[in-house]
Amino acid sequence: MTFTLFLEQVVNGIILGSMYAIMGAGLALIYGTMRILNFAHGEFYMLGGFFVFFLFAQQNIHPVLAIIIAVIGVALIAALVQRMTVSVLLKREGWAFSTIAATLGVSIFLQNLALALWGERFQSVPYFVEGLLQVGQFRLPWQRVLIFVVAVAVMAAMAAVLRWTRFGWAVRATAQDAEAAAVVGVPAARIHTITFALGAGLAAVAAGLLAPVFAVNPWMGLPLIIKAFVVVVLGGLGSFPGAIVGGFLLGIVEAVGITLTSSEWRDVIAFGMMILFLWVRPWGLFGVKER
Amino acid sequence: MFAPLAPQGRLAVAALVAILLVLPLVWHDTYVLHLIILSMIFAAFAVAWNFTTGYAGLKTFGHHAFFGIGAYFSALISKNFDISPWLTTPVAGLVAACAGLVVALPVLRIRSVPHVAMVTLGFAEIVRVLLTVFRETTRGEMGLWGIPAYDGFTIPGLGEVVFNAAEKVPYYYLAALLFLGSVYAVVRMVKSPIGLALVAIRDSQDAAESLGINLTRYKLLAFAASAFMVGLLGAFYAHYILLLTPSSVLGLDLMILVIGMTLIGGVGTLFGPILGAFVMTIGVEAMRGIGEYRMLIYGALIVVVVMFMPRGLVAMLDGLGPRFGFGRQARPQAE
User: Fold this and answer.
1) Contact B270/B187 with Cβ under 8 angstroms?
2) Domain boundaries, chain B
3) Transmembrane region positions (chain B) (predicted)?
4) CATH code, domain with A55
5) Is there a contact between A93 and B115 if contact means CB atoms under 8 Å apart?
């Protein structure tokens, strides 16, 4: 293997890593504020993919507008789901398990709803931008450059919102201590719903950007949610910066790993890394040791 | 705390077991027997999963790994080395139990439910991908076939017992043996000091530890015993269905099915997982007419049960009165 080819692999790993990071960041945001593991996250991603397929590939709506509509649509669906299930369960005993079970049920429901409504065909979505970026021997499709740029911009915007807006303070306060936040007037239940919707919206962004790379189908969420799990474990469950670092780390390790073995080993590498991490440092890179 | 069966309850259980054992003698329908065999396998699986999750409180989402390991181990060894499945089946159980210990090791260090869920699920996914990748041996998603069935034998006075696709009765009794054996083993464990220790760990690790309960030993036991049972079931499944693919015995779908059955029946109860498995296996089969909507309904059902009947169907039986003695041990779980 030449050095250029290796470099291409690593760059592709970083780009895919940015998508893992966005998925993981959504999951981490939800976990951070509510302490729940959202098993339906992959299905919000899948719904985002179908939004973009119908709006952009079929109706020829401009991709930027299509993704914005997808994000809003998915966020609204997620808010509804959160209100009907998670929000109710959080008030009960045994919520850590019951919320996992409920979101797992939602995941199966949405997956099969998509199957019933839109069939099992793999729907392809054209590239938003054509052409290749070429530097010497090094080649990269502009679509992938676009994925990376948008991903970084979205994550930066998200981080800025959390850091500098009143809403962001409210989210972080709720994450630290929901009861104490409620005492000082933060509407914790509303913050929970909005955060859940926002996390799902991030999944829809990833879906919109990746739709042209991977085909859109009812099962497209599964591989991504599993990667998102790995990412949040690496970064520390509930840590937003941790998820971003974890996403890039996973992308790069996978890319290097599969150039050394073969692409079939991708998932083995990812899960092996997760289990190793849980063994050595269960609270992740950025998480706090919970006892 | 554990009085699972009042005298009337014992009578009811004895009657159910008798019906189960007599049924194939009076009802010869192959399809019905097949459905009950599957129900028994799923019921035993759900009981074993519930032992780890509902009693020991270790919320695992990767028990299908042990089913797949048992199935593939027994199938590959008996096929490639020409060893009788009667021998490879119990060994497959032991191999699954060892795998259970391996999974339990990282679980020992973590307490948060989401972490346990992810590490167990991740382990199962690794096993699935490995079976897909080593396709020279396992044939991957093409499917492993040519798995030997159990050898026949002769029972003096009754005649010859043959295991093949057309003859379900021998398989039925073998499945009944595994099913009743698993339930009996779990009942014995739950009623023994082991069960009390496990429930104590589930309800409060710190309190249990301060009372001198060895957390490590009991958690490892909960995983290994449960994995052993599930491994046996997987091996039986391999020699019964005679065709394996990684997605059929190691797919997340299988785990979801078992979780759904247990939730619908009632987590942390003895009778719940069994009831759930029978109701769902036969119910899903009855719903076959509506094709692709089956899983849609299944997903919705899980949500509805979690939201509105967190104690499952056994809680409703409880409402029928303690006369039947079922499910009285059903109680909401502490986290």
Assistant:
1) yes
2) 26-247
3) 9-27, 33-52, 87-108, 115-134, 170-187, 220-242, 254-284, 296-317
4) 1.10.3470
5) no
The DSSP secondary structure of A133-151, one letter per residue, reads EEETTEEEEHHHHHHHHHH
Statement: residue B165 has pLDDT above 80: no
The answer to whether the Cβ–Cβ distance between A110 and B59 falls below 8 Å is no
Asked if B222 contacts B246 with a C-beta cutoff of 8 angstroms, the reply is: no
Give CA–CA dist B77/A52, Å, rounded. Answer: 49
Q: Which residue in A27, A109, A219, A225 has the most chain B C-beta atoms within 10 A of its own C-beta, making it the best mutation to test that interface? A: A109
For B31, the token pair is 């399809």
Contact residues on chain B for A278, CB-CB shorter than 8 A? 106, 109-110, 115, 118-119
- Beta carbons of B307 and A85 less than 8 Å apart: yes
**Residue B94 confidence (pLDDT):** 94
**pLDDT over 60 at B81, yes or no:** yes
Q: Cβ separation of A278 and B113 shorter than 8 Å?
A: no
Where residue B190 falls among pLDDT bands split at 50, 70, 90? confident
pLDDT digits (tens, 9 = 90+) for A271-280: 888 888 877 7
Range of the domain at A203: 3-280
**Among candidates B111, B303, B335 on the partner chain, residue whose Cβ is nearest the Cβ of A102:** B303
- pLDDT tens, A61-93? 888 999 999 999 999 999 999 999 888 888 888
Q: How many CB pairs under 8 A join A and B?
A: 142
- Work out the minimum CA distance from B11 to partner chain A, whole angstroms: 34
Q: Confidence band (pLDDT; 50, 70, 90) for B324?
A: very low
In a domain, A77, yes or no: yes
CB-based contacts of B141, cutoff 8 Å, min separation 6: B132, B245, B246, B247
Enter the ipTM.
0.85
**Do the Cβ atoms of A96 and B335 come within 8 Å?**
yes
Distance from the A19 Cα atom to the nearest Cα atom in chain B, whole angstroms = 20
Task: Assess A119–B contact: CB distance below 8 Å, yes or no.
Answer: no
Query: Concatenated DSSP letters for A180-240?
Result: HHHHTT--HHHHHHHHHHHHHHHHHHHHHHHTTTS-B-TTTHHHHHHHHHHHHHHH-TT-H
Q: Which stretches of chain A score pLDDT less than 70?
A: 1, 287-291
Answer whether residue A285 is part of any domain: no
| Residues B311 and B275 sit within 8 Å (Cβ to Cβ) | no
Closest CA of chain B from A137, distance in Å: 32
What's the predicted TM-score (pTM) here?
A: 0.86
Residue A237 belongs to a domain: yes
Q: Is residue A242 one of the residues assigned to a domain?
A: yes
> A109 and chain B: CB distance < 8 Å anywhere?
yes
CA angle A203–A208–A211, rounded 5-degree value: 115
